[in-house]
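Re: weekly structure request thread

Next one in the queue (232 aa):
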Amino acid sequence: MSGRFSRLIYVGGLPADIRESEIEDLFYKYGRIVDIELKVPPRPPCYCFVEFESSRDADDAIRGRDGYNFDGCRLRVELARGGRGPPSSSERRGGYGGGGGGGSRFGVSRHSEYRVIIRGLPSSASWQDLKDHMRKAGDVCFAEVYRNSEGTYGLVDYTNYEDMKYAIRKLDDTEFRNPWTRSYIRVKEHKGGSPSRSRSLSRSRSPRKRSKSRDRSLSRSPIKASRPRSRS
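Done, posted below.
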């Protein structure tokens, strides 16, 4: 198999309350994700399609997650066969049934007009670190980290205007941390065009456990960093 379908995997047996962000958490460590399409049929279980940037990443995801126990559900993960149509009766019993047709794309890399720019990131920041931090304010649909002659910065898109404004109000001048360093960041609304394409920075390696709490309150940290004397 070659082309797009060698990079597209089917994930069956998902719980009824699954969210796209949780699917991303399950698979991001295997490689760059291009798109996630979650399907919620009238009768459970839910299922989804995940498209990776390379077929090797898709193979790694299948080996790592097929049969995985997620929140009490045993996942079935395999290469997608025949498109993104609705599952057959065999899929509802835990297997995969192919089909034709397509659907709207609700992917990890989906852009929106509700964009913020984050400056002051440490050079070790990854897009996943950034997305984790910015999710404290709302539903993130895109995150990327860039570096140029002025330093490291990020762009984050929210799915709605309210979350974007909440992020600016609550996350501006807050502490950003990853396993290696920490810094204070500035968050502003981004009103310009998209930056030139740049290589992606490395992802954090440890997937997070599924959170039972889904409120929008900011998490409190027992570690308090000293504020740097100057920031660019």
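The chain has five helices and eleven strands. The radius of gyration is 19 Å.
Next request, please.
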